[in-house]
Design brief:
There is one protein chain. By secondary structure, the chain is of the alpha/beta class. 29% of the residues lie in helices and 21% in strands. The strands form three sheets. Strands 1, 2, 3, 4, 5, 6, 7 and 8 form an eight-stranded mixed β-sheet that branches. A three-stranded antiparallel β-sheet has the order 12-9-13. InterPro entries: Arsenite_MeTrfase-like (IPR026669), Methyltranfer_dom (IPR025714), SAM-dependent_MTases_sf (IPR029063).
Length: 365
């Protein structure tokens, strides 16, 4: 059952259950959240305090983003703790929700991309981060030349977006930067993201994943949790969970090793991690397998940030002007989403099945 099918009593019951104390000797959801708030509100003051490769350096930003990042207040940038660059293409005039928005760094970059007629909403549970973000909303609007700010921030839980008054089907894009692993209820986060997305919308986010399941005895360690390690989902468990809530065909945009400080490695008993950017589309009629129906698309080269080549995911890279065969799922994602006007489509009504798509492969690291 996907999020849009959950009744309000069912959502409330799920939220209430998460607040109760744990019965298995482990910390409750509320205790985990308090540990995270403490870690990012008091212990971690700058990027240099982190013991992992959590932070994205400016060198990893695409060239078109660097000047936008340079427009963000220094105090806000100094409190950015994301694990990758996490802003997708084609955001003009859209509504974007940032889960775990922290100091607002990503939100203020996105603010410039959606433009004055777009909308950006950030949600974070840490008082000091939300206060800092709110301190600079009008400052950034003035710097961007906007009459008023197009960014708002809410203090709250990303598992409980309904409690913040965020309506069903009210956003085009949901982003999140190295936050899902911090949540004690990842299914609720994905369920809520699915609920607030419009049909054709997407969740585009970076996070840390374990290459094997993290032992239970490590999950309550506040340092390992705060460093985005012990709360990381096992890769295959994430794929299963995403599909369960309605994101049928998760796509990997990029993935790279996640480096951990030597002082933490002894605790982890050889467990390795990756930092990965996924895109999850809320599109109906996607299949769990990647199938070939003889369809193709041509990228027009009309996206300002990708005039020559568009990296849709690591298996679908479109050169401008080239007609490229695609699977039915990819065809449907492009046609149902904000990417539609940037492509020509061939074989829209094709019903002949040619078998598995030639470049299809399991969702591997």
């Amino acid at each position: 059952m996907v999020a849009s099918q959950l009744s309000q009593p069912e959502r409330t019951s799920r939220h209430a259950a998460g607040a109760k104390g744990a019965t298995n000797g482990r910390k409750s959801a509320d205790e985990v959240r308090e540990d995270v708030k403490e870690y990012y509100g008091r212990i971690i003051q700058t990027k240099e305090d982190l013991q992992t490769s959590a932070c994205c350096t400016e060198e990893k930003f695409p060239s078109y983003v660097k000047p936008l990042a340079g427009m963000v207040a220094d105090e806000v940038a100094s409190k950015f703790f994301g694990c990758d660059f996490c802003v997708p293409n084609v955001l003009e005039n859209t509504s974007v929700l940032d889960l775990g928005s922290g100091s607002g760094f990503d939100c203020f970059i996105i603010s410039q991309l959606v433009g004055e007629t777009g909308r950006v909403v950030g949600v974070d549970m840490t008082d000091s981060q939300v206060e800092l973000a709110n301190k600079y909303t009008q400052w950034h609007a003035d710097r961007f030349g906007f009459e008023k700010s197009n960014v708002t921030f809410h203090k709250g839980y990303i598992e409980k977006l309904d409690e913040l008054g965020l309506d069903d089907a009210s956003f085009d894009v949901v982003v999140s930067n190295c936050v899902l692993n911090l949540s004690p209820d990842k299914e609720a986060v994905l369920t809520e993201a699915y609920r607030v997305l419009r049909t054709g919308g997407e969740m585009y986010f970076s996070d840390v994943y374990a290459l094997r399941r993290v032992p239970d005895n490590l999950k309550d360690d506040p340092v390992l949790r705060g460093e985005c390690i012990s709360g990381a989902l096992y890769w295959n468990d994430f794929i299963t969970l995403a599909r369960k809530v309605g994101f049928t065909d998760p796509r990997v945009v990029q993935s790279e090793p996640y480096f951990v400080d030597d002082s933490l490695m002894d605790k982890l008993d050889g467990t390795e991690f990756v930092s990965t950017t996924f895109r999850l589309f809320k599109v109906s009629n996607l299949e769990a397998t990647i199938e070939d129906y003889g369809q193709a698309v041509k990228y027009k080269g009309s996206i300002f940030s990708a005039p020559a080549q568009l990296v849709f995911d690591r298996d679908n890279i479109f050169e401008a002007g080239a007609v490229v065969p695609v699977s039915r799922n990819t065809f449907r994602m492009l046609r149902a989403s904000r990417f539609r006007s940037h492509f020509d489509f061939y074989g829209c009504c094709s019903k002949k099945h040619f078998g598995p798509f030639p470049r299809s492969q399991p969702i591997t690291i």
